[in-house]
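Weekly modeling sync, notes
Attendees: S.R. (lead), two postdocs, one rotation student

Agenda item 3: backlog of single-chain predictions. S.R. asked that every request posted to the team notebook include the full sequence so nobody has to chase files. The rotation student volunteered to paste the first one in as an example of the format we agreed on. Action items at the bottom.

Example entry:
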Amino acid sequence: MTRDWRTAYEQVSTTVLDSAPAARPLLAGFNTCVDHAYRLDPPALDRLTEAARAGHRPLAALSDEVLRRIRDGGDGEVFVPAPQSRPALDELLGPPAARQVGGTGAQAAWVPAVLNAPSVLALADRSAEQLAVLHPGIGLCGDGTVRPVAAVTARGARDLATSWRTAGWRAECVPTPYLSRPAATIGLGDTFVAGVLLAGCLPVKADLPVRLSPGGTP
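Predicted structure, as returned to the notebook:
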């Protein structure tokens, strides 16, 4: 007998939604940042090509590496050990197409917040740019209490030169839909981690209709 998996997952979703507000608080740490997403349209590719040919480091090396991965059908992260060069990327590619939350901790805290489950994010950067990309329901510590992002007043500015002085910054080459085995998955792994953590925080009495034996698959 074939199981109706659509109905089973709908039942799981209903159970999780009903149980999430009573879940134990999820404390999220690790890194939190703001991802700048750029679209590589033909004019941007032309500018990358010119930068690669000019030989001015480190953008020449970055441009050459991105173009190589495009030619080879590859993807993945590129590390640039020069924090002072980060603003030059905007000059090369123009303003980012989007600014979004980055980092395992912030993305893991997002899932419980969407489901009205309690989550608290360890966050030192309270700048307007950082707070703007966080879910308004994520909790932040301050003044001896936990407040949702929506109730926190932004302060200070993001000091990129200080935060990246010893490390540099990273450029992620996001795959096109045509790659059969992409290496880069922006946020996908963090969302999976969040789901696992949320499951661990749900009340034990939650009766999920889907149970798999070891090695079982839907």
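Discussion: group reviewed the output briefly. Residues 5-19 form the longest helix (15 residues).
Action items: rotation student to repeat for the remaining queue; S.R. to check formatting next week.
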